[in-house]
Write a structure and sequence with these properties.
440 residues; alpha/beta; Non-ribosomal Peptide Synthetase Peptidyl Carrier Protein, Chain A; transferase; phospholipid biosynthesis; G3P_O-acylTrfase_N; lipid biosynthesis; GPAT_N_sf
Length: 440
């Protein structure tokens, strides 16, 4: 998941909103209406509660076909392959990829990425020492590969505001179950956990909350949700991520993105990758910001944004990982959206440390289809008290406020680093950052 910076927009002092367009005017979506129906209807309890397995997925497909037959014929909404769902071994799974290429249903480059994804995921799960590792790998990868193939056949398209798909198939739980075995919870920590209860209380009161965060991996949304799912499920399931176009276009990433609430934008870093598309991207970003403003007007919204404009990357000389600097224009755009929403708003600095689980390429790449390096590792999440913005709006004050957010994120990050990489555990806590393991 790549959540990226908001574009800069012109502001008019007479306007209620931080850009010079009418929020009440009609506008078209970035893309056509999305595909929603994948399988036949199943009960809400089933789709939300069962532990996802390839066998369960295959049964959903069979139920669909039985329903069609009982109704007297007709075609399935989507031509669904059993290539992966019925695989009972690694050999069958990998041979299935080759069969789909030979049948012309899968591009060779995507197939190569799927096979690499499988092998890296397998190695990472076996690092955990879980006695059920082989079963976990086969089950989770069978479902993942099937969903990737399904999207190649019938590409899902994201609206400017995408609401997580929870039924008839629960993409959110798919992502949770896939990433969960990659996290070493014995070596994972949450900082200032009590503040997440404070945030939940503000949301209940109709307030909006924005989390200004560093960004490390495509798996960030799942990591956040997994570290909070036991104690703060409302936050885990309702967080809205400002997400870049790469996670909604890469077929290996899209099934995971479909399970998250997203505001879809184009990153500044990739705005001119194809110069003739730059104007389209700018207009799409404005539509997404209009959606964001409309959402915030209803109150009780929790938004995650990475003002750095992309994922953290290691220092090319030292190899050290640190939060990438925040962009003040992105921070200020988000502040203006909050202040103009009509609902009380709050801004908290959030730190993430999870790059070992799925680190990004060392450099920003233009092409879609990056390699996925995966490992089993501890992860960290920390939030600090909200930082109120100064009512003065000079450029200097905007920069000072952005630096205050960034400084807090960096301080929290360093505590998490000491706990996880420095092996200090809970002893890494400081006067301002109290670490805990709320899942215990």
């Amino acid at each position: 998941m790549s959540a990226l910076s908001l574009p800069s927009l012109s502001c008019t002092s007479s306007s209620t909103y931080p850009f010079s367009i009418s929020l009440n005017s009609s506008f078209s979506s970035i893309i056509p209406f999305q595909r929603v129906k994948l399988f036949g209807s199943t009960s809400k309890a089933t789709t939300r509660s069962f532990f996802l397995t390839a066998k369960a997925m295959a049964e959903l497909v069979k139920d669909k076909e039985s329903g069609v037959a009982a109704a007297g014929g007709g075609e399935m909404d989507i031509e669904h392959s059993r290539t992966f769902l019925e695989a009972r071994s690694e050999e069958e799974l990998l041979s299935g990829i080759k069969k789909e290429v030979e049948a012309g249903r899968l591009p060779p480059n995507v197939a190569a990425g799927m096979e690499e994804f499988y092998r890296n995921y397998k190695n990472a799960i076996f690092q955990s020492g879980d006695p059920a590792a082989a079963e976990t790998v086969l089950s989770n990868m069978a479902v993942a590969l099937d969903l990737m193939l399904l999207d190649v056949k019938d590409p899902f398209v994201f609206q400017p505001y995408h609401k997580a798909l929870r039924e008839p198939f629960d993409y959110y739980m798919f992502g949770q179950n896939y990433i969960r075995p990659l996290i070493d919870f014995r070596n994972s920590y949450v900082g200032n956990h009590s503040l997440f209860y404070e945030i939940e209380e503000k949301l209940k009161q109709g307030h909006n909350v924005v989390l200004f965060s560093n960004h490390q991996t495509e798996a960030d949304p799942a990591v956040i949700a997994l570290l909070l799912e036991k104690t703060n499920p409302h936050i885990a399931e309702n967080l809205i991520y400002v997400a870049g176009d790469r996670v909604i276009t890469d077929p290996l990433c899209k099934p995971f993105s479909m399970g998250r609430n997203l505001i879809c934008v184009y990153s500044k870093k990739h705005m001119f990758d194809v110069p003739e598309l730059a104007d389209m991207k700018r207009k799409a970003n404005i539509r997404s910001l209009k959606e964001m403003a409309l959402l915030l007007r209803t109150g009780s919204k929790l938004v995650w944004i990475a003002p750095s404009g992309g994922r953290d990357r290691p220092d090319p000389v030292t190899g050290e990982w640190n939060p990438a600097p925040f962009d003040s224009s992105s921070v200020d755009n988000m502040r203006r959206l909050i202040e103009s929403s009509g609902a009380p708003g709050h801004m908290y600095p959030l730190a993430l440390l999870c790059y070992d689980i799925m680190p990004p390429p060392s450099k920003v790449e233009k092409e879609i289809g990056e390699r996925r390096i995966i490992s089993f590792h501890g992860a960290g999440l920390s939030v600090a008290p909200e930082i109120a913005a100064n009512c003065e709006k000079s450029e200097e004050v905007k920069d000072v406020y952005t630096q205050a957010l960034y400084k807090s994120v960096t301080e929290q990050y360093n505590v998490l680093k000491s706990a996880i990489h420095g092996k200090q555990g809970l002893e890494a806590s400081t006067a301002g950052i109290a670490l805990s393991q709320p899942w215990n």
